[in-house]
Structures are given as structure tokens and as C-alpha cells.
Amino acid sequence: MGSPWFNNTVKRLCNKKKQHFRTAKQRNRSDRWERYRKTEAEYNTAVCETKKHFITATLPNLLSNDPKKFWKAVNPKKKTSAINLFNDADEPVSPAQGALLLNYAFSRAFCLPSTVPDIPDLFEYEFSVMFPVLIEPCGVMKVIESLKLSSSCGIDSINSKLLKQTFK
């Protein structure tokens, strides 16, 4: 099986393009070459649209409805070595290096070998570790008691009057 997006419409246009090319080459007339160029443009448009539809509509649909078919379409047909997330000393690679390896392997599945994009290096921020936030019942009670009755309810749709009456 070839590319999963290569359907009968694209195949017919490909054959039509080849036929028009042979005719144009044999006859060598401008009207035949024009017909070939028109067919070639139709073919290229159909390929782009079919690929786009496959990636934007078919693959997400397969992922939600039939994950087995999704991974069959995504994984390359030729056998490649498994992704190795261990270094030469048989220790796990760093999370950043692991992410790069997985990203590269996944992009190889979707791109031609010559078009695998280089992943840009992003600036890493150095933040200090955040200590755990401790929430105590007395603190929650204090916040609820200080609520105004006129304040609007939160995302849980519980108004402040009900909260105040519950915790009295």
C-alpha cells in the first residue's frame, strides 16, 4: 500500500496526466502541451487538497474512532529501529532529550526524509522551585466569611449566600 491519502481520484488524475504527457511528447503541439499542463495543475491541486483533508479530517477521526488504523497510517511501513530513550550507559536520557527524540521520530512519520524540519532551540527560563501551597480549613472558612453577599458565583455556580449559610 502506498500513501494512505492516495485515493482513486488522485490515481485517475495521475494516469490522465501521464497519458497527456505521452501524447504531448509524441505530437509536440502547443495545444497538447497546454492540456498536459492543465491536467498537471489539476493533479497537483488534488494531491494538496487530499493530503490536507487526510491530515486535518481523516487522521483525527481515525484517532478517536479507530486508533489501530490511525497508528497503522502514521507509522512508517518500512521497519525502522525502535526509539531508544536510554544513553550508552543504559541510563534514561534527560526529559528534554527524550522529548527531542520523540518529536523527531513523530515528525519522520509525517514528513518525507528530506523535509523533516529542524526543531528550533527555545530559551529556557530558570525559575526557582515553587514550594507547595498549603490550604487549611480555617483559611477557607475565613475566605468564605469575608465574601460579600452580592458577589457573583464562581465556576461551580454556587453563590456566596449558600456558601456562608453552609459553613455557619
Walkthrough of the structure:
The protein has 168 residues and is mostly helical. The protein folds into two domains: 8-78 and 92-115, no CATH class; 137-166, no CATH class. 57% of the residues lie in helices and 0% in strands. It has helices at residues 8-27, 30-65, 67-74, 95-110, 137-145, 160-166. α1 packs antiparallel against α2 and α2 packs across α3 (67-74). The longest helix has 36 residues, at 30-65. It is elongated and about 95 Å long. The mean pLDDT is 82.
Please give the largest β-sheet.
none
Helix content: 55-70%
Give the radius of gyration: 30 Å
Low-confidence parts, pLDDT < 50 over ≥5 residues? none
Compute the average pLDDT: 82
Hey, roughly how much beta strand do the residues contain?
under 5%
C-alpha termini separation: 70 Å
- Which term fits the overall shape? elongated
- The helix/strand class is mainly alpha
Number of discrete helical segments: 6
